Amino acid sequence: MKKIGFLINPIAGMGGKVGLKGTDNEAYRKALSLGAKPVSTHRAETALENISPRSAREILFYTCSGKMGEDVLRELGHKYDVVYKAPEETTSKDTARACREFLKKSVDLILFCGGDGTARDVADAVKNEVPILGIPAGVKMSSSVFSVTPEAAGELLSIDEPEITDGEVLDMDEEEYRRGRLRVKLYAVAHTIMAPDKIQQSKSVFFGDGEEESKEEIARFFQEFMDDETLYILGPGSTVKSICDFLGVEKTLLGVDVMRGGRIIAKDVNEEKLLEILNSHKDSEAVIIISPIGSQGFIFGRGNQQISSDVIKKVGPENILVVATPQKLRQTPVLYADTGDKKVNAMLKGKIRVITGYRMATLRELITD
Question: Is the pLDDT of residue 140 over 90?
Answer without folding.
Answer: no
